[in-house]
Amino acid sequence: MKPEDALPDDLAGESRFQLLTRLGFAGRGLLYIIIGLLVIFAGRTEDLTGALEYLGHGVGKLLLAVLVVGTAVYGLWRLTDAVFGIESGRHHWKAWRKRVAAGTSGIIYSFLAYKAVRILFSQRVSGNDAQQHAADAFDLPGGEIIVLIAAAILFGAGIVQLVKAAKCSFLARLDCDDRQKVWIRWLGRIGYAARGIIFLVVAWQLEQSAIHRRASEAGGLEQALDFFSPTVRGWVAAGLMLFGFLSLVEARFRRIHRPPPVDRVADGLKDAVRR
C-alpha cells in the first residue's frame, strides 16, 4: 500500500466495528442532506425512510447497500452504549438519561436498517410510522396516556437538542483542532437547533393526537416539515442539511470508544433480559 493511501494514525488503530460506526454517521448525514435538498429544490418533504426510498432506484441502490451496513452498525453501537455505557457513562443519573436516549436511537436506526434492506430488495415499506404507532397505542387500554408519554419524551429530546445547540457540547467528543472547531461549531448550532425544532413540532403533533384521540394527527419528520410555511420550511430544511454535514464531520473526527468483547456483550444482553 502506498504511504498516501494509508489511514491516519487515529483511524488505523480502530477496530472494524468502530470504522463501520463512522460509516453510520456518514449515512445519517447523507439522509439529512437528501431531506434538505428535496425540500429546497423540489418542494418535497420526506422523513428518513422517504430519503432511503429516494435512493432505492438505479445507481442509488449501491449507495443504499452501503447505508444498510452503516445504519445497522450505528444502531448496534448505540444499543451497546445503552447496555454498557461506553459513551454515556455508567453510574449517575445523567448517564442513565443518555443511555436511555442511546437505546431509543439504536432501536430507531436498527429499524431503519431493516427498512433499507426491504427497499433494497424492492419491497414496500409502511408509510407514516407515527400514525400507525399512535393507532396501535389507541387500541390499548390507556392508549392516550402512552401517546402523551411519547410526546413528553420527544419534547424533552427537542429541548436537549436546543441545549446542545446553545452549549456546543457536541464539540467535546471531536478530535480536531481549534481552527476546525470554529466552523464546526456553527454547523452544530444551526443543525441541532433545526433538529430540536422538528422534535418539538412532532411532540406537539403527538400531544394533539392523544388529546383528540385521532391517530391521523400524529406525525414524524415529514409532517413536521409540512407544518411550516414554505419559506420557514426552507430555512428549517437548510438547518437539517447542516446537521447532515455535521454528521459527516463526526464520521471523521468523532471519538468512538472501542466496544467491549463479544462475550461480554452477550452476557450483558442476557442479564438485561433476565431483569
Automatic annotation (TrEMBL):
Pfam families: DUF1206
InterPro entries, A to Z: DUF1206 (IPR009597)
Sorted UniProt keywords: Membrane, Transmembrane, Transmembrane helix
Domain DUF1206: 23-84, 103-166, 190-254
Entry superkingdom: Bacteria
Residue ranges crossing the lipid bilayer per the database entry: 25-42, 62-79, 100-121, 145-165, 186-206, 232-249
UniProt-recorded name of the protein: DUF1206 domain-containing protein
Source species of the chain: Sphingomonas sediminicola
